């Protein structure tokens, strides 16, 4: 799959932002006044910034409001609803903390659930797609949610939780890669099932439909990044989990905390780039490619 | 609405005969022509006369080489367009309701004025039947020539999809695959019509007829023994030359 920067930035930043909102919703850290204001500004910049980035890949962003109509069937529509509802409910909760020194528990808990719901629906946009076997697995939502919650803990300054959750998220990331590696073969879709010519003999793509390239090949058959995927996986896992955990284990300092956040962010961006670049769409089979 | 209908009154679709298709691409050209000049946004080209031409097509013809365990390889031309699936994954993922399947005839269509160009339906389709037009920025797909098949302004003989009307080999058939007595359903039953990627669970309406088995010649070639190849072992001067060259 073509790794479009807008979607990578969207899913990474809004995942982090909603993760932080979820922690703020359950009252960790228990902040009020100006400190709470700063935490909320960071969370909203990440979440809303990501959402705005996601509209950059739309052909007709001016019609984006229509995307709220099909929540009954479409995960993309549900994501829109959950994201907006989470931002609205958490704004009420944040107003309570900043202006009234009040932590309204029910509002916070509902906001936290909606925030994680938004991340879950983002992951389901990908996990629902049977045509992309690497994404069509149960670990895809676990991967997105664990990264969001761990990154949120890191931003919320919950050091103990962050150490544990970063290690969990790193382990889930490794499992997602390893299980994903065999997903295409396990899907049962291959040249024989795509053409149904396998009963005659071995099928090979002889001539493509056109001499030039097309939308399908540009969007779905992206092979450039795969040759470095092993190295990028190591870089991603080091930056997203190992380096932040080491920095958190050192005596606390604000510079180290900032470095841990930046390292985690870079690691998640690398992993998300791989999430797209490594994903193979079954349509590639019609072109004799993966 | 992007929920799929429980059932459709009819299941209009295509039957494509892989035994008959000669790979002339006439269906590709007529499809591009009709769907550029008629319903919806035209199918644009990018740099059509340049070094890297590319464009939107709703129908593309692939060619495959199939090598049986014994004997010669076969070449199979393979036209591919939207299969108008009963369980169309492209429809349910659409966030705006632009993508829909019609209850009256099962045709899967895009309402272009509602399409936000997110591309998710093209991701969901395992067949590569949907292409985002690079000029209009909306999703294009086969309409089964919905603007021909019900069009009373054109002669009755033309009220079929333009790809079917154009095919010089008669490799494409159009009809109601929901009616077991229709010509296309009978053809599918007789020839063992197939679904593409059945494991994807899309339940395509369009069917593909497999190439008929190649016939094999028995011992009917009575002249063959007399036409045996000339002695593989050269004699005389050529024999000497052969040996001399071997030794070098």
TrEMBL record, chain A:
This is DMSO reductase anchor subunit. The chain crosses the membrane at residues 7-28, 34-59, 80-100, 106-127, 139-156, 162-180, 234-252, 258-275. GO terms for biological process: anaerobic electron transport chain. Keywords: Membrane, Transmembrane, Transmembrane helix. InterPro entries: DmsC. The keyword Transmembrane applies. One of its GO terms (cellular component) is dimethyl sulfoxide reductase complex. The keyword Membrane applies. One of its GO terms (molecular function) is dimethyl sulfoxide reductase activity. It holds the Pfam family DmsC. It comes from the Bacteria.
TrEMBL record, chain B:
GO terms for molecular function: 4 iron, 4 sulfur cluster binding; metal ion binding. Residues 12-42, 73-105, 106-135 form the 4Fe-4S ferredoxin-type domain. Keywords: 4Fe-4S, Iron, Iron-sulfur, Metal-binding. It comes from the Bacteria. PROSITE patterns: 4FE4S_FER_1, 4FE4S_FER_2. Pfam families: Fer4_11, Fer4_4. CDD domains: PsrB. This is Fe-S-cluster-containing dehydrogenase component. It comes from Sulfitobacter brevis.
């Amino acid at each position: 799959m073509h790794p479009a920067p807008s979607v990578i930035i969207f899913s990474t930043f809004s995942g982090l932002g909603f993760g932080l909102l979820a922690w703020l919703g359950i009252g960790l850290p228990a902040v009020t006044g100006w400190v709470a204001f700063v935490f909320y500004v960071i969370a909203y910049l990440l979440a809303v910034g990501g959402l705005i980035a996601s509209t950059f890949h739309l052909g007709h962003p001016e019609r984006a409001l229509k995307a709220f109509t099909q929540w009954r069937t479409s995960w993309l529509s549900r994501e829109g609803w959950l994201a907006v509802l989470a931002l609205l409910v958490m704004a009420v909760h944040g107003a309570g903390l900043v202006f009234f020194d009040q932590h309204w528990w029910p509002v916070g808990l509902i906001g936290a659930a909606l925030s994680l719901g938004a991340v879950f629906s983002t992951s389901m946009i990908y996990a629902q797609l049977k045509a992309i076997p690497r994404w069509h697995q149960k670990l895809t939502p676990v991967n997105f949610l664990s990264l969001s919650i761990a990154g949120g803990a890191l931003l919320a300054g919950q050091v103990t939780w962050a150490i544990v959750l970063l290690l969990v998220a790193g382990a889930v990331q490794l499992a997602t890669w390893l299980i994903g590696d065999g997903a295409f073969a396990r899907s049962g879709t291959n040249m024989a099932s795509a053409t149904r010519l396998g009963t005659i003999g071995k099928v090979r793509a002889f001539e493509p439909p056109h001499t030039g390239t097309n939308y399908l090949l540009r969007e779905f058959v992206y092979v450039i990044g795969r040759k470095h995927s092993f190295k990028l996986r190591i870089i991603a896992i080091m930056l997203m989990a190992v380096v932040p955990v080491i920095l958190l284990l050192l005596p606390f300092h604000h510079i180290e905390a900032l470095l841990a956040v930046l390292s985690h962010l870079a690691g998640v961006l690398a992993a998300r780039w791989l999430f797209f670049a490594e994903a193979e769409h079954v349509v590639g089979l019609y072109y004799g490619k993966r | 609405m992007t929920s799929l209908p429980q059932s459709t009154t009819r299941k209009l679709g295509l039957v494509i005969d892989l035994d008959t298709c000669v790979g002339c691409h006439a269906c590709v050209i007529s499809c591009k022509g009709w769907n550029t000049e008629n319903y919806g946004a035209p199918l644009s080209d990018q740099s059509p006369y340049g070094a890297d031409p590319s464009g939107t097509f709703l129908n593309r013809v692939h060619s495959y080489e199939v090598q049986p365990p014994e004997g010669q390889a076969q070449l199979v031309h393979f036209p591919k367009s939207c299969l108008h699936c009963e369980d169309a994954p492209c429809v349910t993922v659409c966030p705006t309701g632009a993508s829909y399947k019609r209850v009256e005839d099962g045709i899967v269509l895009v309402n272009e004025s509602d399409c936000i160009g997110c591309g998710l339906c093209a991701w969901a389709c395992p067949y590569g039947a949907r292409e985002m037009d690079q000029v209009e920025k909306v999703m294009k797909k086969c309409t089964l020539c919905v603007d021909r098949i019900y069009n009373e302004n054109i002669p009755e003989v033309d009220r079929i999809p333009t790809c079917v009307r154009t095919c010089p080999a008669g490799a494409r058939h159009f009809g109601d695959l929901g009616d077991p007595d229709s010509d296309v359903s009978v053809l599918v039953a007789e020839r063992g019509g197939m679904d593409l990627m059945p494991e994807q669970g899309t339940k395509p309406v369009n069917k593909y007829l497999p190439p008929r088995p190649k016939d094999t010649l028995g011992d009917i070639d009575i002249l063959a023994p007399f036409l045996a190849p000339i002695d593989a072992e050269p004699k005389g001067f050529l024999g000497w030359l052969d040996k001399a060259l071997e030794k070098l």
